[in-house]
Amino acid sequence: MAETETSRSDETTLVVDAHTHVIARDHQLYPLRPHGVDLGSGRERRPADWFRVHPVTVEALLDELDGAGVDRAVLVQAFGAYGYDNGYCAHAATSHPRRTTSVCIVDPHQDDAPARLGYWVRERGVRVVRLFAIGDAQETWLSERPGLALLGAAQELGIPVVVTVGAHQLPQLARALEEFPGLAVALDHCGFPDLREGPPYRAASSLFELAPRANLRLEVSGLILRQIQQAGGRPRDFVAALAAEFGARRLLWGSDYPQTHDRSYAELVSICREAADDLGAEDRAWYLGRTAVELWPELGHHQESR
């Protein structure tokens, strides 16, 4: 795509970062709750302390957005930092409703998980639930009763779902998508596929096999695009392959900042933008922001303000 066409498209498109995290400065009001992940073998993997090394408040994040030409952000509950306590994430979004929306996490293994989700949505203004199943010792729950109960609750509440799973769990996601064909679902980090071999991405076949599931969207994250670069590949090849199989209207991007912070926010945004350079202007507009607004219409309000 010519540079002039790309620039013109970006100037007229609402740009939405669909995957950011925020950390409160006040640890008394919003205490950190570092959340280990039980791997089911007597070991516990402690989360990396990115939230101590590189914490970013919502106000600081909005400053970063301004500097990088990004209009809106989806604030995703930082599981490693806060676990299931969505307090700061919810507060941050309701404090800046023109530019942000929030994604909560509830413990699927609690019997009252659907009711807890209802609280965060109805009482605290959360607009999305994140089903965080990666690394869970009971990681088959997504397509079993706990996951299906939360998916059903999300459908009743009229909110989308973000799913965080590994590539080996994608068959479970396929079963869940089949159970709820009318529920909009976004897949975090594209399910962490193996992309090291490059096109045609045969090792990522379980991801591409999900293309017929029309209710699935893919979040193309800065983390995944950096891994492609580190393996000597081109992120634009991966995004073009996704667009060819899924359609660009089902793609959205997310920086994963500040959990991913080995480079500046502006550099992460640049990687995500450039990954769409082989898309036409209309497809690029969907990837940059329209798909996110379709999932979260509140982000499309007040388009005149940044």
Overall description:
The protein is an alpha/beta fold and 306 residues long. It has one domain (3-300): TIM Barrel. It is built from 13 helices and ten strands. It has helices spanning 3-12, 50-53, 58-68, 79-82, 87-95, 113-122, 145-157, 170-179, 205-208, 222-230, 235-246, 265-274, 281-295; strands at 16-20, 37-38, 44-45, 72-76, 100-104, 128-132, 161-164, 185-187, 216-221, 251-254. The strands form two sheets. The protein has an eight-stranded parallel beta sheet with strand order 1-4-5-6-7-8-9-10. Strands 2-3 form a two-stranded antiparallel sheet. Strand 8 (185-187), helix 9 and strand 9 (216-221) form a beta-alpha-beta unit. The model is unreliable at 1-9 and 37-46 (pLDDT under 50).
CATH topology: TIM Barrel
* Total count of strands: 10
The CATH architecture: Alpha-Beta Barrel
Strand order across the largest sheet: 1-4-5-6-7-8-9-10
Main traits of this protein?
two-stranded antiparallel ribbon, 13 helices, 13% strand, 306 residues, TIM Barrel, 8-stranded parallel beta sheet, disordered N terminus, alpha/beta
In short:
This protein is of the alpha/beta class and 306 residues long. It has helices at 3-12, 50-53, 58-68, 79-82, 87-95, 113-122, 145-157, 170-179, 205-208, 222-230, 235-246, 265-274, 281-295, and strands spanning 16-20, 37-38, 44-45, 72-76, 100-104, 128-132, 161-164, 185-187, 216-221, 251-254.
